[in-house]
Prior knowledge:
The complex is a heterodimer. In chain A, the strands form 4 sheets. In chain A, strands 7-2-8-1-14-13-15 form a 7-stranded antiparallel sheet, with helices on one face. By secondary structure, chain A is of the alpha+beta class. Chain A has helices at 32-40, 76-93, 134-148, 170-176, 179-182, 224-233, 244-257, 262-269, 274-278, 282-295, 342-347; strands spanning 17-23, 50-55, 65-71, 94-101, 115-123, 152-156, 161-166, 187-192, 208-210, 213-219, 304-310, 313-318, 327-331, 334-338, 353-355, 363-366, 369-371, 377-379. By secondary structure, chain B is of the alpha/beta class. Chain B has a domain at 129-254: Glutamate synthase, alpha subunit, C-terminal domain (Pectate Lyase C-like), CATH 2.160.20. An 11-stranded mixed sheet of chain B has the order 1-2-3-4-5-6-7-8-9-11-10, sandwiched between helices. In chain B, helix 1 (28-40) links the parallel strand 1 and strand 2. Chain B is globular, with a radius of gyration of 19 Å. Chain A binds chain B through residues 36, 39-43, 276, 279, 321-322, 325, 327, 340-343, 345-346, 354, 356, 358-359, and chain B through 1-4, 28, 52-53, 55, 75-79, 95, 97-98, 114, 116-117, 135-136, 159-161, 184, 204.
Amino acid sequence: MPRRRRELYNKEICACSIFGAMNRDGDRFKGQGVIEAIANMHVRGNGLGGGFAAYGIYPHYQDYYAFHVMFTGNSWEAKRCAKQDLEAFLCENFDVVYDEEIPHGDETLVSDPPLVWRYFVLPSKSGEDANRTEEDYVVEKVMWVNTRIENAYVFSSGKNMGAFKGVGYPEEIAEYFMLDREYDAYMWTAHGRFPTNTQAWWGGAHPFGLLDITVVHNGEISSYGTNRWYLEMYGYACTLQTDTEVIAYAADLLMRRQHLPISLVAKILAPPIWNSIDRMNESEKKLLTTLRMVYGPLLMNGPFAVIIGETGRMIGLTDRIRLRPLTAATRGEMFYLSSEEAPIRLISPELDSVWTPNGGEPVVGELKNIRMVKDEVIPLS
Amino acid sequence: MARAELDESVPRWDPMEQAEIDARGIATRELNDRLRDLMKAGIEHVVLKNVCGQRYIGTRLYTPEKKKMEIEIFGTPGNDLGAFLYGHNIRVHGNAQDGVGNTMDDGEIVVEGRAGDVLGMSMRGGKIFIRDNVGYRTALHMKEFEDKKPLLVIGGTSQDFLGEYMAGGTVILLGLGDRTHLANHIGTGMHGGAIYLRGAVDPSQVGKEVAISPLSDPDRELLKKHVGEFVSNFPELNLDLSEIMKKEFVRLSPRSKRPYEKLYTY
């Protein structure tokens, strides 16, 4: 994999904000409340990154992979070139059923926006690829674009979902992409950024995603180097210059490719410390020791709180000694995760329950049904 | 809404007229400025309505003449509630977030709900009463000096690292409602003060610097006094002091005042 030299950046104390809201009945809602909630934690970020992931927003194209692609570059010409290269590649490897520029507001709302385009595609596999799963095929092609096509980044590639992100405060990014009025989703996650180790750029904003898995993250993965080398062995290329990317790829590897349940995934990413393992009974001890042996390089060291989104599910997880905050709450069919309690109360003053999950223990909200357009109810198996 | 807008040209509102602030949409700094103006004007009781995430409420309320104020909060105050609090009283009708009483100097904070992580961090005086559970690293490096002795009473239980690097003061964990204490790493690095737990704790849950002992008579007197204060702070719970005191407590205290004496040598 090509590696680029990175500039060192003066470190500051970080405090990103993360927020997620999910309607477990699958009823879809506009982004307004989530935008207000993440904006309530404005002071945690510094305007150098904001983003959202929304699930259930493309019911008319629900069977197609929705690629959100940003074309960066200093000039209009550079962006146009990147777009041409990408489209040539897409036409060769996919059937593109529809494409358009992602609608956005006035460009003065944000600084230096890239050209952001969406494509609804189906894989067109041929030759040796015929035996591979669709998902593996898509992942490989996404990685190919992100490493080989200059100035083109596929930052969202799932079905019936999409990520929207950029440099700015999250409320500014939301305004730019008109998330308060353009989209209805049954689940939203959001992020306000305070970049710690790398410079801010549009691709480096959260969420990070692959297929339908997205991650928003507060903290700092100090094991990034190790995690990244391990993931490269499985074909994941880290191109977005920030640590959170490895969590998204690790989640894809463990949850989608290896079919591990989230309870085990949590024990891989945030394993209990050795002297806690020593106190467990023999069978637990054996399991945890084995996991640490097999998946040692996927241990995420350092402080983190993340919200992982995927179709029908929202997962909150912190590092094993909870060095970053996470509050969970429910109200009726609504499920919330947030860095702080106040933003949850802002949009839902009354809550049925509110709690702080233990470090390393995942909290999971799951959809009972996904309700699609025309009120068809499709149960999730 | 929490956008820090620091427009000094906005006409200052007259503190004499009211002792209630609608905090909706007000930024942290402005809210604390208003509290400060009220205190200087001699107002002794302030009600804050619709608080939602504003931080450091009650900080910067220092006067050489040690003016005191009662602050009543409706809503959810933000992180570091009562940071550096200088002798004032705060009551929250609801939950609090992380960092309540950070480096608090004196006064009293009562939370009718739960509190988040690092409650009472570096606290050096005053009292905090939390009705429900608290998060990680409660009483982190709490300290005492001569007559300044902080007190923390928690109605529920705590998550891991309670009393980490604790250097002084008193922490009481009541575990009301038959809650068991599941926290690990209690008192790691502890070298002063005492933690009283109502109910049992396994030696594997506490740091190696911590000794677990039964209560002495002076301990029991001290507990009765402070738990009594807790009971009277939450009349809505209808708690019975003698009922609470019937259950066994344990005392956690440091084995050594200088646990790292031998670790750092020249």
